[in-house]
Protein backbone atom coordinates (compact mmCIF):
# COMPACT_ATOMS: atom_id res chain seq x y z
CA UNK A 1 0.00 0.00 0.00
CA UNK A 2 1.31 3.44 -0.93
CA UNK A 3 1.81 6.32 1.47
CA UNK A 4 -0.47 9.35 1.13
CA UNK A 5 2.19 11.36 -0.75
CA UNK A 6 2.96 8.42 -3.05
CA UNK A 7 -0.73 7.94 -3.76
CA UNK A 8 -1.11 11.64 -4.63
CA UNK A 9 1.87 11.41 -6.98
CA UNK A 10 0.58 8.29 -8.74
CA UNK A 11 -2.87 9.82 -9.26
CA UNK A 12 -1.37 13.05 -10.61
CA UNK A 13 0.93 11.11 -12.97
CA UNK A 14 -2.01 9.16 -14.37
CA UNK A 15 -3.96 12.35 -15.04
CA UNK A 16 -0.95 13.92 -16.78
CA UNK A 17 -0.61 10.87 -19.04
CA UNK A 18 -4.29 11.08 -19.96
CA UNK A 19 -3.94 14.72 -20.93
CA UNK A 20 -0.93 13.91 -23.10
CA UNK A 21 -2.93 11.16 -24.79
CA UNK A 22 -5.62 13.62 -25.89
CA UNK A 23 -8.09 13.84 -23.02
CA UNK A 24 -9.55 17.30 -22.56
CA UNK A 25 -9.87 16.66 -18.82
CA UNK A 26 -9.30 13.78 -16.45
CA UNK A 27 -9.28 12.70 -12.84
CA UNK A 28 -7.78 9.69 -11.06
CA UNK A 29 -8.60 8.08 -7.74
CA UNK A 30 -6.31 5.79 -5.75
CA UNK A 31 -7.73 3.60 -2.98
CA UNK A 32 -5.61 1.27 -0.88
CA UNK A 33 -6.24 -0.57 2.33
CA UNK A 34 -5.13 -3.28 4.72
CA UNK A 35 -7.14 -4.94 7.47
CA UNK A 36 -6.94 -7.83 9.92
CA UNK A 37 -9.93 -9.63 11.40
CA UNK A 38 -10.13 -12.40 13.97
CA UNK A 39 -13.24 -14.49 14.58
CA UNK A 40 -13.83 -16.61 17.70
CA UNK A 41 -16.65 -19.08 18.34
CA UNK A 42 -17.34 -21.08 21.50
CA UNK A 43 -13.97 -20.06 22.88
CA UNK A 44 -12.00 -21.39 19.91
CA UNK A 45 -10.28 -19.53 17.12
CA UNK A 46 -12.46 -19.85 14.02
CA UNK A 47 -10.77 -17.58 11.48
CA UNK A 48 -7.94 -15.09 11.02
CA UNK A 49 -8.19 -13.00 7.90
CA UNK A 50 -5.72 -10.50 6.52
CA UNK A 51 -6.58 -8.51 3.41
CA UNK A 52 -4.53 -5.96 1.50
CA UNK A 53 -5.28 -4.29 -1.78
CA UNK A 54 -4.88 -1.17 -3.84
CA UNK A 55 -6.45 0.08 -7.03
CA UNK A 56 -6.38 3.22 -9.13
CA UNK A 57 -9.08 4.41 -11.50
CA UNK A 58 -8.96 6.90 -14.35
CA UNK A 59 -11.84 8.93 -15.76
CA UNK A 60 -11.15 10.79 -19.01
CA UNK A 61 -13.23 13.37 -20.88
CA UNK A 62 -13.15 14.07 -24.60
CA UNK A 63 -15.54 16.95 -25.06
CA UNK A 64 -18.76 15.89 -23.32
CA UNK A 65 -17.92 12.22 -23.71
CA UNK A 66 -16.33 10.28 -20.87
CA UNK A 67 -15.18 6.82 -19.88
CA UNK A 68 -13.47 5.21 -16.93
CA UNK A 69 -11.53 2.09 -16.02
CA UNK A 70 -9.26 0.91 -13.22
CA UNK A 71 -6.27 -1.29 -12.49
CA UNK A 72 -4.50 -2.80 -9.52
CA UNK A 73 -1.20 -2.84 -11.41
CA UNK A 74 0.60 0.43 -10.60
CA UNK A 75 3.52 -0.02 -13.01
CA UNK A 76 4.29 2.51 -15.78
CA UNK A 77 3.39 -0.09 -18.42
CA UNK A 78 -0.01 -0.65 -16.84
CA UNK A 79 -0.63 3.09 -16.61
CA UNK A 80 0.16 3.54 -20.30
CA UNK A 81 -2.22 0.76 -21.29
CA UNK A 82 -4.96 2.10 -18.99
CA UNK A 83 -4.68 5.61 -20.44
CA UNK A 84 -4.80 4.35 -24.02
CA UNK A 85 -7.88 2.25 -23.29
CA UNK A 86 -9.82 4.90 -21.39
CA UNK A 87 -9.17 7.74 -23.85
CA UNK A 88 -10.18 5.48 -26.76
CA UNK A 89 -13.38 4.51 -24.89
CA UNK A 90 -14.18 8.16 -24.18
CA UNK A 91 -13.95 9.07 -27.86
CA UNK A 92 -16.64 6.48 -28.63
CA UNK A 93 -18.91 7.14 -25.63
CA UNK A 94 -22.27 8.93 -26.01
CA UNK A 95 -22.33 12.64 -25.29
CA UNK A 96 -23.54 13.78 -21.88
CA UNK A 97 -24.32 17.52 -21.71
CA UNK A 98 -23.81 17.52 -17.94
CA UNK A 99 -20.50 15.62 -17.83
CA UNK A 100 -17.30 17.24 -16.60
CA UNK A 101 -15.07 17.87 -13.63
CA UNK A 102 -16.17 19.90 -10.63
CA UNK A 103 -15.80 23.71 -10.90
CA UNK A 104 -12.18 24.66 -10.37
CA UNK A 105 -13.05 27.52 -8.02
CA UNK A 106 -14.81 25.09 -5.66
CA UNK A 107 -11.87 22.72 -5.20
CA UNK A 108 -10.28 22.45 -1.77
CA UNK A 109 -7.24 24.68 -1.53
CA UNK A 110 -4.72 25.27 1.25
CA UNK A 111 -4.18 23.02 4.24
CA UNK A 112 -6.86 20.40 4.87
CA UNK A 113 -8.80 20.47 8.14
CA UNK A 114 -7.50 18.37 11.03
CA UNK A 115 -9.91 15.44 11.35
CA UNK A 116 -7.85 13.06 13.54
CA UNK A 117 -9.17 9.98 11.73
CA UNK A 118 -5.92 8.00 11.60
CA UNK A 119 -4.21 6.34 14.57
CA UNK A 120 -2.10 4.01 12.42
CA UNK A 121 -4.62 1.18 12.49
CA UNK A 122 -2.02 -1.46 13.30
CA UNK A 123 -3.06 -4.50 15.34
CA UNK A 124 -1.60 -7.94 15.84
CA UNK A 125 -3.87 -11.00 15.51
CA UNK A 126 -3.02 -11.99 19.10
CA UNK A 127 -4.46 -8.75 20.45
CA UNK A 128 -7.55 -9.01 18.27
CA UNK A 129 -8.06 -12.59 19.45
CA UNK A 130 -8.05 -11.44 23.08
CA UNK A 131 -10.61 -8.75 22.33
CA UNK A 132 -12.92 -11.11 20.44
CA UNK A 133 -12.65 -13.73 23.18
CA UNK A 134 -13.52 -11.16 25.85
CA UNK A 135 -16.63 -10.18 23.92
CA UNK A 136 -17.80 -13.76 23.42
CA UNK A 137 -17.04 -14.84 26.98
CA UNK A 138 -19.05 -11.92 28.35
CA UNK A 139 -21.97 -12.69 26.05
CA UNK A 140 -22.02 -16.40 26.92
CA UNK A 141 -21.86 -15.58 30.63
CA UNK A 142 -25.29 -13.89 30.48
CA UNK A 143 -27.89 -16.17 32.06
CA UNK A 144 -30.14 -17.62 29.36
CA UNK A 145 -27.59 -17.53 26.54
CA UNK A 146 -27.30 -21.05 25.13
CA UNK A 147 -25.13 -20.79 22.02
CA UNK A 148 -22.91 -18.44 20.10
CA UNK A 149 -22.61 -17.38 16.49
CA UNK A 150 -19.22 -15.95 17.36
CA UNK A 151 -17.45 -12.72 18.17
CA UNK A 152 -14.99 -10.77 16.09
CA UNK A 153 -12.43 -7.99 16.35
CA UNK A 154 -10.85 -6.07 13.51
CA UNK A 155 -8.41 -3.29 12.72
CA UNK A 156 -7.55 -1.63 9.45
CA UNK A 157 -6.15 1.38 7.66
CA UNK A 158 -6.95 2.90 4.28
CA UNK A 159 -5.47 5.53 1.96
CA UNK A 160 -7.38 7.61 -0.60
CA UNK A 161 -5.96 10.14 -3.05
CA UNK A 162 -7.64 12.12 -5.82
CA UNK A 163 -6.02 14.13 -8.63
CA UNK A 164 -7.71 16.16 -11.36
CA UNK A 165 -6.49 17.98 -14.45
CA UNK A 166 -7.52 21.25 -12.77
CA UNK A 167 -4.41 20.94 -10.59
CA UNK A 168 -5.90 19.24 -7.54
CA UNK A 169 -3.93 16.38 -5.97
CA UNK A 170 -4.66 15.51 -2.35
CA UNK A 171 -5.02 12.43 -0.20
CA UNK A 172 -5.69 11.28 3.34
CA UNK A 173 -5.46 8.20 5.56
CA UNK A 174 -7.99 6.72 7.95
CA UNK A 175 -7.95 3.91 10.49
CA UNK A 176 -10.75 1.71 11.80
CA UNK A 177 -11.27 -0.64 14.74
CA UNK A 178 -14.25 -2.83 15.53
CA UNK A 179 -15.63 -5.48 17.86
CA UNK A 180 -18.84 -7.48 17.61
CA UNK A 181 -20.66 -10.44 19.16
CA UNK A 182 -23.72 -12.46 18.18
CA UNK A 183 -25.33 -15.08 20.45
CA UNK A 184 -28.44 -17.21 20.86
CA UNK A 185 -30.74 -17.54 23.86
CA UNK A 186 -33.28 -20.22 24.67
CA UNK A 187 -33.66 -23.66 23.11
CA UNK A 188 -35.36 -25.40 20.20
CA UNK A 189 -37.94 -23.47 18.21
CA UNK A 190 -37.95 -20.76 20.88
CA UNK A 191 -34.34 -19.69 20.33
CA UNK A 192 -33.70 -16.01 19.76
CA UNK A 193 -30.63 -14.30 18.32
CA UNK A 194 -29.24 -10.83 18.86
CA UNK A 195 -25.97 -8.97 18.54
CA UNK A 196 -23.98 -5.89 19.48
CA UNK A 197 -21.09 -4.10 17.80
CA UNK A 198 -19.05 -0.94 17.88
CA UNK A 199 -16.60 0.76 15.51
CA UNK A 200 -14.21 3.64 16.03
CA UNK A 201 -11.41 5.45 14.23
CA UNK A 202 -9.09 5.27 17.26
CA UNK A 203 -8.61 2.15 19.32
CA UNK A 204 -8.90 4.25 22.48
CA UNK A 205 -12.47 5.21 21.51
CA UNK A 206 -13.64 1.61 21.04
CA UNK A 207 -16.12 0.31 23.61
CA UNK A 208 -14.87 -2.30 26.04
CA UNK A 209 -15.15 -5.73 24.42
CA UNK A 210 -16.78 -7.29 27.47
CA UNK A 211 -19.44 -4.55 27.52
CA UNK A 212 -20.24 -5.26 23.87
CA UNK A 213 -20.55 -8.97 24.66
CA UNK A 214 -22.82 -8.43 27.66
CA UNK A 215 -25.05 -6.19 25.58
CA UNK A 216 -25.38 -8.88 22.90
CA UNK A 217 -26.26 -11.51 25.50
CA UNK A 218 -28.78 -9.33 27.32
CA UNK A 219 -30.45 -8.36 24.06
CA UNK A 220 -30.84 -12.01 23.03
CA UNK A 221 -32.32 -13.05 26.39
CA UNK A 222 -34.74 -10.10 26.38
CA UNK A 223 -36.24 -11.38 23.11
CA UNK A 224 -37.31 -14.78 24.50
CA UNK A 225 -40.94 -15.88 24.28
CA UNK A 226 -42.15 -13.12 21.97
CA UNK A 227 -45.82 -12.48 21.29
CA UNK A 228 -47.42 -10.81 18.28
CA UNK A 229 -48.98 -7.37 18.74
CA UNK A 230 -52.52 -6.74 17.63
CA UNK A 231 -52.97 -5.07 14.26
CA UNK A 232 -54.07 -1.49 13.77
CA UNK A 233 -52.94 2.12 13.76
CA UNK A 234 -50.81 2.98 16.77
CA UNK A 235 -47.67 4.85 17.91
CA UNK A 236 -44.38 3.26 16.90
CA UNK A 237 -41.20 4.09 18.82
CA UNK A 238 -37.83 3.41 17.18
CA UNK A 239 -34.84 2.46 19.34
CA UNK A 240 -31.61 4.36 18.48
CA UNK A 241 -30.09 1.19 17.00
CA UNK A 242 -32.68 1.40 14.18
CA UNK A 243 -33.97 4.99 14.24
CA UNK A 244 -31.06 6.25 12.12
CA UNK A 245 -32.36 4.01 9.32
CA UNK A 246 -35.14 6.53 8.71
CA UNK A 247 -32.52 9.01 7.51
CA UNK A 248 -31.44 6.75 4.65
CA UNK A 249 -34.64 7.21 2.62
CA UNK A 250 -34.45 10.94 3.33
CA UNK A 251 -30.95 11.08 1.80
CA UNK A 252 -32.09 9.09 -1.21
CA UNK A 253 -35.02 11.43 -1.74
CA UNK A 254 -32.85 14.57 -1.73
CA UNK A 255 -30.12 13.17 -3.96
CA UNK A 256 -29.67 15.54 -6.88
CA UNK A 257 -29.70 12.69 -9.38
CA UNK A 258 -33.14 11.56 -8.13
CA UNK A 259 -34.42 15.12 -8.32
CA UNK A 260 -33.12 15.51 -11.88
CA UNK A 261 -34.82 12.23 -12.86
CA UNK A 262 -37.99 13.27 -10.99
CA UNK A 263 -37.99 10.02 -9.03
CA UNK A 264 -38.21 11.41 -5.49
CA UNK A 265 -41.17 11.62 -3.14
CA UNK A 266 -39.74 14.97 -1.99
CA UNK A 267 -39.45 16.41 -5.51
CA UNK A 268 -41.44 19.57 -4.69
CA UNK A 269 -40.39 19.90 -1.05
CA UNK A 270 -37.40 22.25 -1.28
CA UNK A 271 -37.82 25.10 1.18
CA UNK A 272 -40.96 23.47 2.59
CA UNK A 273 -41.67 21.90 6.01
CA UNK A 274 -40.93 18.19 5.78
CA UNK A 275 -40.66 17.44 9.52
CA UNK A 276 -42.33 19.03 12.51
CA UNK A 277 -40.94 22.36 13.73
CA UNK A 278 -37.77 21.95 15.79
CA UNK A 279 -36.46 18.89 13.94
CA UNK A 280 -32.92 19.34 12.68
CA UNK A 281 -30.82 17.00 10.50
CA UNK A 282 -27.12 17.76 10.03
CA UNK A 283 -24.37 16.29 7.86
CA UNK A 284 -20.86 16.95 9.18
CA UNK A 285 -17.89 15.56 7.20
CA UNK A 286 -15.46 17.46 9.44
CA UNK A 287 -16.34 15.83 12.75
CA UNK A 288 -13.17 14.87 14.62
CA UNK A 289 -12.70 11.08 14.51
CA UNK A 290 -15.98 10.67 12.61
CA UNK A 291 -16.45 7.34 10.87
CA UNK A 292 -17.09 9.08 7.52
CA UNK A 293 -15.08 12.24 8.02
CA UNK A 294 -13.14 13.48 5.00
CA UNK A 295 -11.40 16.74 4.05
CA UNK A 296 -12.71 16.78 0.46
CA UNK A 297 -15.37 14.95 -1.49
CA UNK A 298 -15.11 12.55 -4.41
CA UNK A 299 -14.62 15.40 -6.88
CA UNK A 300 -12.09 17.35 -4.82
CA UNK A 301 -14.52 19.93 -3.42
CA UNK A 302 -14.01 21.27 0.08
CA UNK A 303 -16.42 19.78 2.59
CA UNK A 304 -18.27 21.43 5.44
CA UNK A 305 -21.23 21.07 7.76
CA UNK A 306 -24.62 21.13 6.04
CA UNK A 307 -27.90 21.63 7.88
CA UNK A 308 -30.20 19.54 5.69
CA UNK A 309 -33.35 19.95 7.76
CA UNK A 310 -33.57 23.20 9.72
CA UNK A 311 -36.53 23.64 12.07
CA UNK A 312 -38.35 21.01 10.05
CA UNK A 313 -37.67 22.67 6.67
CA UNK A 314 -35.74 21.02 3.81
CA UNK A 315 -32.89 23.36 2.86
CA UNK A 316 -31.38 21.75 -0.25
CA UNK A 317 -30.28 18.73 -2.28
CA UNK A 318 -27.11 16.62 -2.14
CA UNK A 319 -25.42 17.19 -5.49
CA UNK A 320 -22.47 16.17 -7.58
CA UNK A 321 -21.15 18.55 -10.22
CA UNK A 322 -23.12 16.78 -12.96
CA UNK A 323 -26.44 16.89 -11.08
CA UNK A 324 -25.81 20.53 -10.19
CA UNK A 325 -25.31 21.45 -13.84
CA UNK A 326 -28.50 19.66 -14.79
CA UNK A 327 -30.48 21.47 -12.09
CA UNK A 328 -28.79 24.85 -12.59
CA UNK A 329 -27.44 24.85 -9.04
CA UNK A 330 -24.06 24.49 -7.32
CA UNK A 331 -22.46 21.21 -6.20
CA UNK A 332 -22.62 20.67 -2.46
CA UNK A 333 -19.43 18.71 -1.66
CA UNK A 334 -21.25 15.41 -1.21
CA UNK A 335 -19.75 13.46 -4.12
CA UNK A 336 -18.68 9.88 -3.41
CA UNK A 337 -17.10 7.46 -5.82
CA UNK A 338 -15.20 4.29 -6.38
CA UNK A 339 -12.32 3.80 -8.78
CA UNK A 340 -14.71 3.08 -11.66
CA UNK A 341 -17.60 5.13 -12.98
CA UNK A 342 -18.84 8.64 -12.27
CA UNK A 343 -19.43 10.04 -8.78
CA UNK A 344 -22.70 9.78 -6.92
CA UNK A 345 -23.89 11.84 -3.95
CA UNK A 346 -24.15 10.73 -0.33
CA UNK A 347 -24.08 12.03 3.21
CA UNK A 348 -21.11 11.55 5.55
CA UNK A 349 -21.48 11.81 9.34
CA UNK A 350 -25.23 12.31 9.46
CA UNK A 351 -27.40 12.84 12.51
CA UNK A 352 -30.78 14.02 13.68
CA UNK A 353 -30.45 16.41 16.58
CA UNK A 354 -31.73 15.43 20.01
CA UNK A 355 -35.18 16.54 21.07
CA UNK A 356 -36.33 17.96 24.39
CA UNK A 357 -37.97 14.95 26.06
CA UNK A 358 -36.54 11.78 27.60
CA UNK A 359 -37.36 8.37 26.10
CA UNK A 360 -39.43 7.60 29.20
CA UNK A 361 -41.49 10.76 28.72
CA UNK A 362 -41.78 10.03 25.00
CA UNK A 363 -43.72 6.81 25.71
CA UNK A 364 -45.41 7.80 28.96
CA UNK A 365 -48.81 8.52 27.38
CA UNK A 366 -48.89 5.52 25.02
CA UNK A 367 -51.66 3.16 26.12
CA UNK A 368 -50.81 0.60 23.45
CA UNK A 369 -47.97 0.76 20.92
CA UNK A 370 -44.78 -0.94 19.77
CA UNK A 371 -41.13 -0.31 20.49
CA UNK A 372 -39.01 -1.42 17.51
CA UNK A 373 -35.36 -2.43 17.92
CA UNK A 374 -34.89 -4.55 14.81
CA UNK A 375 -36.02 -4.05 11.21
CA UNK A 376 -36.09 -6.61 8.41
CA UNK A 377 -36.16 -6.05 4.66
CA UNK A 378 -35.88 -2.90 2.56
CA UNK A 379 -39.51 -2.03 1.84
CA UNK A 380 -39.18 1.65 0.90
CA UNK A 381 -40.45 3.15 -2.37
CA UNK A 382 -38.31 6.19 -3.15
CA UNK A 383 -40.82 7.57 -5.66
CA UNK A 384 -43.98 7.43 -3.54
CA UNK A 385 -42.52 7.36 -0.03
CA UNK A 386 -44.43 4.19 0.86
CA UNK A 387 -42.71 2.39 3.75
CA UNK A 388 -43.18 -1.19 4.99
CA UNK A 389 -40.67 -3.13 7.07
CA UNK A 390 -40.69 -6.35 9.02
CA UNK A 391 -39.94 -5.62 12.66
CA UNK A 392 -39.51 -6.97 16.17
CA UNK A 393 -39.09 -5.35 19.55
CA UNK A 394 -41.30 -4.85 22.57
CA UNK A 395 -44.87 -3.94 23.39
CA UNK A 396 -45.64 -0.60 25.01
CA UNK A 397 -48.55 -0.81 27.44
CA UNK A 398 -49.79 2.02 29.64
CA UNK A 399 -46.60 4.02 29.16
CA UNK A 400 -44.21 1.13 29.88
CA UNK A 401 -42.11 -1.20 27.75
CA UNK A 402 -43.34 -4.69 28.61
CA UNK A 403 -43.05 -8.02 26.76
CA UNK A 404 -41.08 -8.91 23.59
CA UNK A 405 -42.93 -9.04 20.27
CA UNK A 406 -42.02 -10.34 16.82
CA UNK A 407 -43.48 -11.28 13.43
CA UNK A 408 -44.99 -7.89 12.73
CA UNK A 409 -44.87 -5.29 9.97
CA UNK A 410 -44.79 -1.53 10.49
CA UNK A 411 -45.98 0.58 7.58
CA UNK A 412 -46.82 4.11 6.56
CA UNK A 413 -45.82 6.82 4.12
CA UNK A 414 -42.59 8.66 4.80
CA UNK A 415 -44.16 12.07 4.15
CA UNK A 416 -46.66 11.44 6.95
CA UNK A 417 -44.09 9.69 9.15
CA UNK A 418 -41.62 12.59 8.94
CA UNK A 419 -44.30 15.11 9.88
CA UNK A 420 -45.39 13.02 12.88
CA UNK A 421 -41.87 12.23 14.11
CA UNK A 422 -40.78 13.35 17.59
CA UNK A 423 -37.14 12.87 18.71
CA UNK A 424 -36.09 12.12 22.29
CA UNK A 425 -33.07 13.63 24.03
CA UNK A 426 -30.81 10.52 23.98
CA UNK A 427 -28.71 11.13 20.86
CA UNK A 428 -25.30 9.43 20.91
CA UNK A 429 -22.63 9.60 18.20
CA UNK A 430 -21.84 5.90 17.87
CA UNK A 431 -22.17 5.24 14.16
CA UNK A 432 -21.79 7.04 10.84
CA UNK A 433 -25.52 7.83 10.92
CA UNK A 434 -27.10 8.58 14.30
CA UNK A 435 -30.52 9.48 15.64
CA UNK A 436 -32.13 9.46 19.07
CA UNK A 437 -35.17 7.43 20.08
CA UNK A 438 -38.01 8.46 17.74
CA UNK A 439 -41.77 8.32 18.15
CA UNK A 440 -44.11 8.32 15.14
CA UNK A 441 -47.88 8.54 15.55
CA UNK A 442 -50.47 6.64 13.57
CA UNK A 443 -48.36 4.00 11.83
CA UNK A 444 -50.02 0.80 10.67
CA UNK A 445 -48.89 -2.30 12.55
CA UNK A 446 -49.75 -5.72 11.16
CA UNK A 447 -49.43 -8.37 13.85
CA UNK A 448 -51.81 -10.99 15.17
Q: Helix fraction?
A: 10-25%
Alpha carbon gap, first and last residue:
55 Å
Order of helices and strands: HEEEHHEEEHEHHHEEEHEEEHEEEHEEE
Q: Estimate the strand proportion.
A: 35-45%
Cα shape = globular
- What is the tally of beta strands? 19
Give the neighbour order of strands across the main sheet. 3-2-1-4-5-6
* Uncertain segments: none
Rg computed from alpha carbons, rounded to a whole number of angstroms: 24 Å
If helices are DSSP runs of H or I spanning 4 or more residues, what is the number of helices?
A: 10
Question: Structural class, from helix and strand content?
Answer: alpha+beta
How many strands, what sense, and barrel or not for the largest sheet? 6 strands, antiparallel
Mean pLDDT: 96
> Please, how many domains?
2
Could you describe the 3D structure shown?
The chain has ten helices and 19 strands. The protein is of the alpha+beta class. It has two domains: 4-221, 2-Layer Sandwich (PmbA/TldD fold), CATH 3.30.2290.10; 226-448, no CATH class. It has a six-stranded antiparallel sheet with strand order 3-2-1-4-5-6. Strands 7-14-15-16-19 form a five-stranded mixed β-barrel. A five-stranded mixed sheet has the order 10-9-8-13-18. α3 (125-140) packs parallel to α4 (209-222). The termini are far apart.
Features:
single chain; 448 residues; alpha+beta; PmbA/TldD fold; 2 domains; 6-stranded antiparallel beta sheet; 5-stranded mixed β-barrel; 10 helices; 36% strand; Metalloprtase-TldD/E_cen_dom; PmbA
Amino acid sequence: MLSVSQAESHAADLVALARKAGADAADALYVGGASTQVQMRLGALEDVERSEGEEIGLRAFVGRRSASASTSDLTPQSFAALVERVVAMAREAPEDPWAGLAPEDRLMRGEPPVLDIDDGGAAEPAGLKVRALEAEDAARAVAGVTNSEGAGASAGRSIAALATSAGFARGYAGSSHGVSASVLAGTGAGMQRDYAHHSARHIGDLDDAAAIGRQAGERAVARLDPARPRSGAMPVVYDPRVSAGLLGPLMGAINGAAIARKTSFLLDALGQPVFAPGVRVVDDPLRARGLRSRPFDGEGLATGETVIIDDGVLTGWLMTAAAARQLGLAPTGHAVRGVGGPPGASSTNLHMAAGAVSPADLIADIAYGVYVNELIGMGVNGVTGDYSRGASGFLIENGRITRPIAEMTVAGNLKDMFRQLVPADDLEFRYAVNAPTLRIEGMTVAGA
